[in-house]
Amino acid sequence: PEVERRPPPLGREPYAVRPVFQPSGDAPGGHHVPPARPQDQLFPCARRHQLLRLRDDLVEAVAREQARRVEALGYDHLWTYDHLSWQHYREAPWFSAFPWLTGIAAATERIRLGTLVSNPNFREPLLLSKDAIALDHVSGGRFVLGVGSGGTGWDATVLGPAVAPRVRTARFAEMVAALDGLLSTSRFSFQGEHYV
Q1: DSSP label at 151?
Q2: pLDDT tens digit string along 15-55?
Q3: CA–CA separation, 139 vs 4, rounded Å?
Q4: Other C-beta atoms lying within 10 Å of the C-beta of residue 117
Q5: Cβ neighbours of residue 150 under 8 Å, at least 6 residues apart?
Q6: How many CB atoms lie within 10 A of CB 87?
Q7: What is the pTM of this model?
């Protein structure tokens, strides 16, 4: 599931948290955006949504221009991987999702921005909620926090041994409960098996 938050009205009220379900596949009325460069830095994730890879060789000015182009073509969302690396880019430099999306937020005005997806393999709920709130404020309420349980690939073992699926599922449930409390209340305390 994903958690969508809107910035609170003036006065620091808690964020409203509600599940967002994105349909997979092609949405009616969508359209395809051809890649801006032959290297396919941008590629369609689903109609009216776009995915931007966080490679270091994608020059900042080019990334901003591609994001503006996607927005100008009428896309509703622009997503990026929240991973430590990605498949065959493991040996290449790789940006962190939140600072990267902050830069894209500054270069765009309307398009919603999201993580595909943040997970407890290397994200902790308290710091993740702080990053999400900051990005949501910088983007003017356009950030969508995509969260998942995490996989079994390189990201799953870089900070320690692989976690069994049952444990990963329980840890994810705690992460969602903690994020819900952190993003929807002004004061929150959490005690779980995986997070304190």
Answers
A1: -
A2: 333 333 333 333 333 333 333 333 333 333 333 555 666 55
A3: 13
A4: 20
A5: 119, 120, 121, 156, 163, 168, 172
A6: 9
A7: 0.71
